[in-house]
Predict the structure of DNA-binding FadR family transcriptional regulator.
Amino acid sequence: MPAPRAYTAILAWLEDQLRTGVISVGEKLPGERHLAEQFEISRASVREAIRVLDAMGLVRSTTGSGPSAGAVVISEPSTALAWALRMHIATQALPIGDIVQARLLLETQAALESEKRPDSPDRRRILEEAARLLDEMDAPGLPTDRFHASDAQFHILLTSLAGNVVVETMMASLREATIGYVQETVSGLERWPEVSCTLQEQHRGVLQAVRERRGEDAAEALRHHITWFYGLSDHR
């Protein structure tokens, strides 16, 4: 069994510091020299650890000198998860069919859960933003990449109504990870205007059911919408 790389000591240390509250989001990590001396590793290994943490969405690093330089702790879990999913989708280790099934499980259950959540200014704001996105997507001649970006945000917003940050993070990651597949599917469609109109009808049906707290109807509308879209790849 190969020995762990030197930088893993810093990853384990930061996990412990975050878990115990010694370091919090927004705080800076100690400098390269300090960490290298503390863990008795090279500064190159420290830089490797920072790069890994950056890819994981745990730190944002800025170069240079002065108070703004260095690695600051952040928390963007969907960034790293989406990157990992996208790479494994590319290797075909994660079949698109299973990704679609995961989306169905997440979104339909979120629709059922959102029905139970109390009314609040935040809920109303999310529903208003979802409606605004659909209006934007109705614009004639809207580029397909803009359409799909708004489409993804629409679904993420509705999922967030369930009030589960883990589900919302997973949903955001899945949507970002599959954007390449979505674009490939659409690029082969000669009837995109017709398809986009159908998608918008489906979106508005989902939104109406969510607004009216008809969880079962919203879940069924989402199930039909998602399977219909991914079925387009079989008929290009």
